[in-house]
Amino acid sequence: MLFKRIAEMRRPRDSPSLLCFDLGTAIVATVRKQKIASLHELTEGKTIKFEFALKGKPTEGFVVCFQGQLVAYENRCRHLPLSLDYDDGRFFSRDGKSFVCQTHNAIYEPLTGLCVRGPCEGASLKALKIEVVDGEVWLVG
Ligand code: FES
């Protein structure tokens, strides 16, 4: 009952998505800005793992350069709460075109994080917001 009242107070009647926006903002605010890599380390197809705190909990992420673009995701499959790699830093399929979860072989598009084949098809990896400043890659949200 209390939660319902709070939700109603935060959400205008004709804007049902505002509550989701507010929650999303709150989640972003729980990630502390931190340096995660140097740009020169991220050659094409290279992945670098890093740890960060998400809502105060230690969480693993990875950043990759794919087709000249930098993207970062939480290292957590959308099928089960397991890392994509087996702690060996291998994220790519053999052809180097997709990320693959090593547990049940879900296939994800590197630039979007979308699962295109496997038990979580249609779900997406959680993207992390990054910035490049003076040759350093920063996690910012
Ligand atoms: S845990 Fe990743 S596909 Fe099942």
From TrEMBL:
GO molecular function: 2 iron, 2 sulfur cluster binding; metal ion binding
Database matches in InterPro entries: Rieske_2Fe-2S, Rieske_2Fe-2S_sf
Metal-binding keyword on record: yes
Keyword field: 2Fe-2S, Iron, Iron-sulfur, Metal-binding
Pfam families, sorted: Rieske
Domain Rieske: 34-139
Protein name as annotated: Rieske (2Fe-2S) domain protein
Species for this entry: Pedosphaera parvula (strain Ellin514)
